[in-house]
What we know:
The protein is mainly alpha-helical. It has helices at 17-44, 46-67, 71-93, 109-127, 129-141.
Amino acid sequence: MQGQRTGEAATPFSIGAATRIGAALLILIGGAIHAYETPAQYSSVRYLGILFAANVAGALIAAAGIYRDKPWAWVLGILVAGGALAAYAITRTVGLPQDTGDIGNWGEPLGVVALVAEGAFVLLALGSSSTWRRRIVDRTAA
């Protein structure tokens, strides 16, 4: 079946390699931007730096799992990217405790790139969701 690695049995619920690679790259773009911003966030508002580092770790784990065609990785990726999208919106509207400096700053270049990549990831993941959700259900039913 298309997207299968050599030696693997084809399943009717496999997601193609191009889709998995594209999704992994999109979540990694968001993770890379958060990695770049982590030191600055940590030095200004410690808990934000920790959240940024968690985003990076989650993005790396999700990308590796998606590349390996693991259904749980799509769920993790949606949580990581969706959480980042929600946090961006909150910091630009009402702000967070100890961090109100970005209220109204919707045009920050790295933030916009991260928004596009993470938004595209979420759309791609949701578009592929019928496939990976069936695989999760099949595994839990077995």
